[in-house]
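For the sake of clarity, the format in which proteins appear in this thesis is described at this point. Each number in the token line that follows is a code from a learned vocabulary of backbone shapes. One such record is shown here in full, so that the layout can be seen directly:
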Amino acid sequence: MTLSLSKDSVVRITGPAKVEVKKGKILLVGAVYEPNSSIIIHRLRSYGLKALEDSELSVTLGTGATVEEPSEGEEVVDEWLRICEVLEKDMGKLSRLTVMILGPIESGKTTLTAFISNYFIQKGKKVGLIDADIGQEDVAIPTTIALAEPKDVFVWQRDLSPKMIKFVGCISPQYCQNNVMAALMNLLNEVKDLYEVLIINTDGWVTTPQALEFKLSLIRWLKPTHVLVLNTDLATYIQRSLPKNVKVLNTPRPAKVKERSREERRRLRAEAYRKYFSNAKERDIDLNDVKIFGSCLLSGKELSIDEVKNLIRIPEELINKIAYVSKYYNIINIFIEAETIPYLPRIESQQGLEVNILKPQDQEGIVVGILDNTLRDVAVGIIKKIDLRKKSIRILTPWEGPIGALVVGRVKVSLDTFEDTSRLGKCVI
């Protein structure tokens, strides 16, 4: 279809769609596009498009896509532009900007992040973008925090490639707040002096007192110059807690957004894993050559069968199937070699000891962080197999360099579909 727009008019386009500028000039996600420009809008995205002058567009719509004129107040392009102008003005008084974006799920955080990035990229500023939404990570993969350095304007963060990642190991921030905090602080300390504008997009966990306390802790320790909040109540809570030198901007959100179902969000996570591991290879690693973080089994003291028998009563039918045993504080971890066992006999805890029986299939698909010999995050892998008689572990990873340590995550994915199959508790390996 051909779409003619008069100056200052706004339309909302929901994907999948392709937009080509034939005449005039438009603003989309904070970027200015002129004739011969082409933009792809994903089927799960919806954006307000503003004509900066009389314009003519060629719009190709896929199944389910729409073009509509929003009602008054539904789109926030002009308000977001004014916020960018405020940030630009404040930048004249500061050496650099660090902007943190807060808001509920599906409130427009990702679009606002791209909007501000594009605005400053076209102003010639060096922009760094930190995606800290570990559950719906767009720049890298879930379980990580990632930094991107966009050189040109973009529509969705999934169009970017990670320049640096930090492994957190879970996809629900409420269960790993300390890891999120540590990873963000570590990343920020490494890159904060490299960019004129640094934008931090956070997760949507904001609707409980615990969540608010966590977000305030992030602000306290990361010390952003500006906090943009896409929720009026949340902005009020944040403003009441912070001194005046941290500028909190109550930022309007679009009245209509393309909401994603739980299944669509899971599918997006699978797509991110699949993309990251598309060029991965299997690597067999000697467990004597690497260190392991977060493993009850491998971090504990190895025990012989005789030593175990002195601690707990083990059924005879299980003895020959045991490949490895370790004691980790009061936990006796028993790794069973057999792939399939008709049943696991019950082992009674004794002497205040807890018994944890592990099978090879328990570890298959666990996501792990990969560190170099200086404990710097370099990549992510997936466990494919552990052979504790040979003391080796096989992982799938795109990383080809040296490995100093592995960090065991709390997420397991299917090696066939890359979909999340479970959220893991402690001592799964």
Summary: The chain has three domains: 2-68, 77-262, 277-429. The chain has a mean pLDDT of 91. Residues 98 and 225 are 5 Å apart (CA to CA).
